[in-house]
Amino acid sequence: MGSVGAFMSLTAASYGCLAHSIPLGVALAVLAGIVLVRVFILQHDCAHRSLFQRPVTNDRVGLLLGILTLAPHAYWRAMHLVHHSTSGDLERRGVGDIVTMTAQEYLALKPLERLRYRLYRHPMVLLGVGPIFQFLLRFRMPGIVPKERKVERRSILVTNLGLLTVHLAFLALGDWPRWLVVQLIITQVAAGLGIWLFFVQHQVERPYWVPRARWSLKDSALQGSSHLVLPRAFEWVVGAINLHHVHHLKPQIPNYLLRDYMVRNGLAAEGVKLNLRESVLAFRLKVYDEATGRMTGFPPVHEGPARTPLAAPPSIEPSGQLGRLLTFSGEER
Length: 333
Prior knowledge:
The protein is mainly α. It has one domain (2-303). It is built from 15 helices and five strands. The strands form two sheets. The protein has a three-stranded mixed β-sheet. The chain has a two-stranded parallel sheet with strand order 2-3. β4 and β5 form a beta hairpin. α1 (2-18) packs antiparallel against α2, α2 (22-47) packs antiparallel against α3 and α3 packs across α8 (150-173). It is globular, with a radius of gyration of 20 Å.
């Protein structure tokens, strides 16, 4: 857990330095935000129960890490496992993933609904406003989980209690405004970097989107997940999650073994390969065109009446679908 120690040390150093040097304090907070991405990957491995042998240890450590990452562990785990079981499935979209509509679905929307989707897919929202809203506000609300999902609701409440304890301590004993500035910088850097990584993992020009009857876990992993080529040092920082095709193929493998598994099993040429430039250009992709099998920009609305969509468009607010889609495999339990 050296990453956790590094994160806490950088956070403390940023808080201390900000009182004397704003540039140094901000720089240290940015570094802490980058390290927090790696801490989140450790929590991600706990969600797959791959970091430790005992499931209960993964759950308990994940709960503690969730207080650092602001992501209530059991709730995030539930959404993420849905993502793994539905990624690339046209009929089960919108939970634990970047909401993606087909061109037909987009054209069938009312003007205000189209505007909402356009704003949702804008990089400034995905990387700026969105992460702050998601991690600081939305993850604090137990109401985003169906009432019958008591474990997920409880994880939100416990995470909130942990955060409240830390912030009340600084409110009573420390310089709370300075602490808040540090936390906002860390959250923006970590969440923005994390959402960028998450976005490019499946938002590719030639994606894997098929009806449920033809969906395959292997094809979803190797044809629909990106293989983002990064410098090895940066790959270590992000916990090798850039080898996303390997992770989706074998989610039970912890992050530090993903590259070794990829090399030993001849998977280096698999996945949708992207470099850094291509990962940035991926933000131009907005909808999936079923006719061409490609992701494209927004289609012109004046093309004519939209054809009947495949199914009801996925909601940008996925909480209503969560209870219906929460079905875990025996391995993930």
